[in-house]
Amino acid sequence: MLTLLGSLHVLIAYILNCIYAPNLNEHMPSWVYIVQGCCLWIYMTLDAIDGKQARRTGQSGPLGELFDHGCDSLTAGLALTIQATSLLYGCTWKTVTLIMLGLTNFYVSTLEEYHTGILYIGYFSGPVEGLIFETLTLITTGFYGPQVWLVPFVEYVPSLKQYFGFSEFLLALNLSDSVLLFLLVGIFPTIFASYKHIFRAKRELNLPVSPAFIDLLPLIVYLASVVAWLLLSPNLLQNHFLLFFSFVNYGFSYIVGRVIVAHVSKAEFPTLNRMNIPVFVGLVNSILLNYFHTGLVPRENEVYLVYACLAFSLIQYFHFALTIIDVICSYLDINCLSIKHKKSM
């Protein structure tokens, strides 16, 4: 229940974002940023204590782990979209890059847990330091306005001018772009640390490491297809980003969810998944439109194809989630959102 309540706070923050900044670059009222920051803080707090609460009540188990990670995988993309808005990225490739980096980090952490059986928390993790940073960003934006992030970094630290003088790029680099650059550089040591743990676990068990690299393919194929579709159909990025991102987010959560199920059930890694179908259909349609001037859906109606992809993703995701919850609850004789008390003799 705590996990669900926390996720609802992220959803509230995201809905406010959709209302006041549908293009992700509008200046929202100050109170919206502050409320969003508080919502993310509440989510982070509840996400941190839900496991402890489950253990205290004797309800910890595979369903709790699945429910927790499932909610986290859904809210991660929403929180990143909110972050992109506060930094005035807009419906651009900056936002796409920010979201892709966050989702990649989440997937690799899940992959690490699958192969090692342990969820490692690094020195800078998304669920803790990442959310603290996002919260502080939103609160700061609420008090000083989003324009504060557009000031060149060296204006806040003038002493750096003597070191950055050789590069016009570094001199003009503002705080907003600095965040993206930091994440872009920081993703590599994060992935390296995860695979270091995987190598160690595989070596101790005398198992090959190659499957851990092959297991990156579902994410690579999915995100590469999404990027290719957006490249071929820039209208979707510029005018329908939130709609497009919604179905991508459900697809990602489905992929991660299947990895978590495989982890808790000790099953084989799920390499193939149905969520590639809508992305592949959209990509093929866009290729046909760009290179053969014909397609499954005309360019002017491509947004309806995105709606169809969203419907497919929603149905597939919730069918998967409800089925898994039902199976686990039936097998373990437990309830999902309440404690099932044993009948007295």
Automatic annotation (TrEMBL):
The chain crosses the membrane at residues 28-46, 169-192, 213-232, 244-263, 275-292, 304-332. It comes from the Eukaryota. Its main location: membrane. One of its GO terms (biological process) is phospholipid biosynthetic process. It is found in: Membrane. InterPro entries: CDP-OH_P_trans, CDP-OH_PTrfase_TM_dom, CDP_ALCOHOL_P_TRANSF_CS, CHOPT. GO terms for cellular component: membrane. GO terms for molecular function: phosphotransferase activity, for other substituted phosphate groups. Keywords: Membrane, Transferase, Transmembrane, Transmembrane helix. Belongs to the CDP-alcohol phosphatidyltransferase class-I family. This is Putative CDP-alcohol phosphatidyltransferase class-I family protein 3. It comes from Smittium culicis. The lineage of its organism: Eukaryota, Fungi, Fungi incertae sedis, Zoopagomycota, Kickxellomycotina.
